[in-house]
Design goal:
The structure holds three protein chains of three kinds.
Chain A: E1 4-11, H1 23-37, E2 47-51, H2 54-57, H3 62-66, E3 78-81, H4 85-97, E4 103-111, H5 117-120, H6 137-150, H7 156-170, H8 184-188, E5 192-194, E6 197-198, E7 207-216, H9 217-223, E8 228-237, H10 251-259, E9 269-271, H11 277-287, E10 294-295, H12 310-323, E11 329-336, E12 342-349
Parallel strand pairs in A: 2-3, 2-4, 9-10, 9-11
Antiparallel strand pairs in A: 1-7, 1-8, 4-7, 5-6, 8-12, 11-12
Chain B: H1 22-32, E1 37-41, E2 47-48, E3 65-68, E4 71-80, E5 93-100, E6 107-111, E7 124-129, E8 140-145
Chain C: E1 5-12, H1 24-39, E2 48-52, H2 65-68, E3 79-82, H3 88-101, E4 107-115, H4 121-125, H5 138-153, H6 160-172, H7 187-192, E5 195-197, E6 200-201, E7 210-219, E8 230-239, H8 253-265, H9 271-274, E9 277-279, H10 287-294, H11 303-308, H12 325-328, H13 332-347, E10 361-368, E11 373-380
Parallel strand pairs in C: 2-3, 2-4, 9-10
Antiparallel strand pairs in C: 1-7, 1-8, 4-7, 5-6, 8-11, 10-11
Helix pairs in contact in C: 3-13
Classes of the chains: A alpha/beta, B mainly beta, C alpha/beta.
Chain lengths: 353, 146, 384
């Protein structure tokens, strides 16, 4: 297996509404920022891969325009996943493993502001039994939270603690959308949105884009002071039969943890892609992370949630922690689908002495 | 640039779809027209409602239909104070995972009650049918407590 | 060095305007089961699933890998969804191959589909976004100006497009899975069919199909003697923007560079001599001669002569679209993988009535967007 590392990461400020800035303009910023960070040009990139979703933009082939943000004349070796860009990173990692590429550019983008995101996400559900009833993403997540509360796994207070920490951590993240100091009492006095969730238990509506550059060990060490090596990576999915799932557990996380030998690592920090506060608690339990593991230093997606890039942002946020020397071994997680249906785990490590 | 200078226009995107449903979903929807709810036996013998085409564990093609009751128990529920435009009930209501009598899995649907405090885990609910039924999941308008 | 990968199974549905007998999952599942049967494998032998299809709005299911996970028996396995416009079937095959070539997986299932009867593809392609020009033309209206330009540039006679339309439909008669079976197809019938976009008549255009195609791709060490592997000699993808100054949409740079790359990686110096046959993405008749040139299989301005002389017919020197091609079946998301898979079937000697005798090396090709995304692979009966 080739050693591969994240060597650069850029993210737009996460905003409620990017207004007139279109997707191409958002991508442009982060692609150039990431390339500049390691002094590379598009011609130095062997493989480019992006993640996006047509339904956010309301057009078919949203990614085709996105391509205008990277220099693709002369033509480039390029691909796209209709998924979170974390999976575009996975595809790029495979390309590096097979020696098709030494350096890869990955980007993801999403503007959730134009539509009603809760309802758009309904279209991910099976089109015969579920989608025609229009259960929205918040309601489905609320069912999961309620099931966890019923099982005495969490309380409204423990959910509020997640939010409190997210907002506090987000204060030191210049791109965050929501940050600040809140008391548990303040949070619990907010009105219920869809019971048992309050609005702050849900990740916000965000516009933005982000980009990551991956490279082989040799290239990484020559271009980056402290690259974050991808030691292990795996992703798994669970059944689409919503009523068949036990929403209070995550067999896909359990399986991936096993595949990446998570228990063999001493994890300093984790960036978890939990669009709802209770999901962070479920992930911590399923990943068996102890209290010494620092969770979502970036603020996580509760502080800003760029759809189709939020998973990639967890990897990018972990890179930031490793590059700055604050973390030696970290875990990044990405998710897709209702109630954590699909999950990816990545162990990232510094190799500096 | 100030907001005034930004051109804005409404853009509503909608398409209609014609579904072909196949032998399993088709059977379920056809029986709904007779106000009957069918499940299907999974590889482990569990009755899955609504019927899955393929077993979630083994992947086997499932074929053995089992009729279940239109009465069941609420296993978990949440309360929607402000329904969205497309929600099945245009007044505050509950989403619930309902285990119908004879089923081993939960069925997601809406429950119509006047107040949140009426909702309880394990409460008995019964399907309220849209008449005449059209062979769609929305033939069950919602569930109501009995 | 990358690991060697081989296609060891292919499955497809009977393509049709509307497959009303199955759900979306049922359609995909049928092709996947057939691919496993062909590979003599069971579901538990599959390590990962790669799904490809064109825009989600065609069926109105967003990110359908999430809904299809049960049908593809992917629960607790990795699943990934590729979307690269019309080239997606080809790209998905290439991504699936990279799972094996990376050395990370032993056997993967790649499934692609489109159930176009669930919606109207032309509408989904032409949304009226504010402040953007509305191209309410559909794919044919979009590509016809390029075909006209090709015809004008090289003074190509009118009947070339019709020759391709007849040839591919005659081939389709030998393919039980093809959507269009027109037994009495002939040049006159094509000429007399309604003119859609001059010079393109109705019978020179692809149909709109429901259909699915799946392949099983295996690592070298997992290939068994009975499997008749099609060894993947090389893969390549290239993309360029829809528009830029100086772009030649008739002979796109991304296509020719992709071809050069895929030949070079396979050690092919003289493609027209070394390759035995090709499955090329030809949704409109005139694209056969255009792509022959773009693929460096003919000199610029000479591609139509290959078509006219019958070299691209099943009995010709360089058979193209032996299965009937996109002109005979077009479940968009699967069309690229059908090209890739049909190329593999030829070198596996499993192409039935449309088998090119002694085919040892074949090209699979797909393109998409505004003729700007390209995916290609070379497969061989022998290891590279």
């Amino acid at each position: 297996m080739r050693e591969v590392a994240v060597i650069a990461y850029a993210q737009t400020p996460m905003t409620r509404d990017a207004g007139a800035q279109n997707e191409v303009e958002l991508i442009m910023q982060v692609v150039h920022q990431a390339l500049d960070e390691v002094k590379l040009n598009q011609t130095d990139i062997d493989f480019t891969c992006s993640g996006s979703c047509d339904y956010l933009q309301g057009v078919t082939f949203a990614f085709v325009d996105g391509l205008n943000a990277v220099s693709s004349v002369p033509p480039i070796n390029e691909s796209h996943v209709e998924m979170d860009a974390a999976w575009a990173l996975y595809e790029s990692w495979l390309k590096i493993q097979m020696e098709e590429a030494d350096v890869a550019l990955v980007y993801g983008f999403g503007k959730s502001s134009p539509g009603e995101l809760r309802s758009i996400m309904t279209l991910q559900l099976d089109p015969y039994y579920l989608a025609p009833l229009w259960p929205d993403s918040v309601s489905l997540a609320a069912l999961q939270a309620k099931a966890m509360i019923d099982n005495k796994m969490i309380t409204e207070e423990s959910m509020a603690k997640v939010v409190k920490r997210s907002r506090k951590n987000a204060k030191s993240n210049p791109n965050s959308q929501l940050s600040g100091d809140f008391s548990i009492g303040d949070l619990l006095s907010e009105p219920i949105f869809v019971s048992p969730l309050r609005k702050h238990d849900c990740s916000p509506i965000t516009d933005g884009a982000s980009a990551i550059i991956l490279a082989t060990k040799e290239k990484a060490l020559s271009l980056c002071r402290n690259p974050a090596f991808i030691t292990s990576i795996d992703h798994r999915v669970e059944t689409a039969q919503f009523g068949y799932r036990n929403l209070t557990s995550s067999p896909s996380i359990q399986k991936s943890s096993e595949v990446i030998n998570l228990s063999d690592y001493s994890i300093d920090a984790a960036e978890l892609h939990a669009p709802f506060s209770h999901q962070e608690l479920l992930l911590i339990k399923e990943l068996q992370l102890n209290e010494e593991v620092s969770i979502n230093k970036s603020g996580g997606v509760l502080a800003g949630n760029i759809m189709m890039s939020a998973g990639l942002d967890r990897i990018g946020s972990m890179f930031n922690l490793i590059k700055s020397g604050k973390v030696r071994t970290g875990l990044a997680h990405a998710t897709s689908g209702p109630c954590l249906q699909q999950n990816m785990l990545i162990i990232m490590e510094s190799k500096n002495e | 640039m100030s907001d005034k200078e930004i051109l804005k226009a409404d853009f509503e995107l909608g398409f209609t779809y014609t579904r072909s449903t196949g032998p399993v979903i088709g059977h379920f929807l056809t029986e709904l027209q007779k106000c009957k709810i069918y499940g299907i036996k999974g590889s482990d013998g569990k009755v899955i409602v609504p019927p899955a085409e393929y077993d979630p564990v083994t992947g086997e093609t499932l074929k053995e239909f089992i009729e279940v009751s239109d009465i069941g128990k609420v296993k978990t529920w949440v309360w929607v104070n402000q329904p969205l435009e497309k929600h099945p009930i245009q007044a505050p209501f509950a989403w619930a995972l309902i285990q119908l009598e004879g089923a081993d899995t939960n069925f997601l649907h809406a429950v119509k009650v006047k107040k949140e405090k009426i909702m309880k885990n394990n409460m008995k609910v019964k399907a309220s049918w849209a008449l005449p039924p059209k062979g769609n999941i929305t033939d069950i308008k919602y569930f109501e407590p009995i | 060095m990358s690991e060697l990968a081989a296609v060891v199974g292919m499955g497809q549905t009977k393509h049709s305007s509307k497959n009303g007998e199955v759900s979306i999952a049922g359609l995909v599942r049928e092709s996947a089961e057939k691919a496993l049967l062909d590979a003599e494998l069971e579901w538990e032998d599959i390590d990962a699933v790669i799904l490809g299809k064109a825009p989600d709005m065609f069926e109105g299911v967003m990110m359908p890998e999430l809904y299809l996970t049960d049908a593809l028996v992917a629960n607790n396995k990795p699943i990934l969804r590729v979307h690269t416009a019309g080239s997606v079937g080809g790209s998905t095959g290439i991504v699936a191959a990279s799972y094996i070539q990376s050395g990370m997986f032993e056997r993967v299932l790649v499934s692609t589909f489109e159930k176009q009867s669930e919606s109207n593809a032309m509408w989904a392609l032409s949304t009226t976004v504010p402040y953007a020009p509305l191209i309410n033309a559909g794919a044919g209206g979009y590509f016809t100006p390029y075909m006209r330009e090709y015809k004008r540039r090289f003074n190509v006679p009118e009947h070339i497009g019709r020759i391709v339309a007849v040839k591919d439909r005659l081939n389709a008669l030998k393919n039980p899975y093809a959507h269009l079976h027109i037994p009495d197809i002939n040049l006159e019938m094509v000429e007399k069919s309604p003119m859609l976009w001059d010079p393109l008549t109705f019978l020179e255009s692809c149909p709109s199909s429901d259909g699915a195609c799946s392949l099983v791709i295996s690592s070298e060490r997992s290939v068994t003697d009975n499997q008749l592997p099609a060894w993947i000699h090389s893969t390549s993808m290239r993309s360029e923007p829809t528009m830029y100054a100086g772009r030649d949409a008739v002979n796109p740079q991304a296509g020719s560079e992709c071809a050069k790359d895929v030949y070079k990686k396979a050690g092919i110096k003289d493609p027209i001599k070394e390759i035995d046959c090709a499955e090329i993405y030809v949704p409109f008749s005139w694209y056969e001669p255009m792509w022959l040139e773009n693929l460096l299989l003919a000199d610029i301005g000479q591609g139509w002569l290959m078509t006219e002389k019958g070299h691209t017919s099943l009995e010709g020197k360089f058979p193209v679209n032996m299965s009937g091609g996109v002109l005979s079946s077009n479940p968009i998301g699967a069309s690229g993988l059908l090209r890739f898979g049909e190329a593999a079937q030829q070198v596996r000697n499993k192409a039935g009535e449309y088998q090119v005798q002694g085919a040892k090396l074949a090209l699979g090709h797909a393109f998409g967007g505004g003729a700007q995304f390209f995916a290609m692979w070379i497969v061989g009966a022998n290891k590279p």
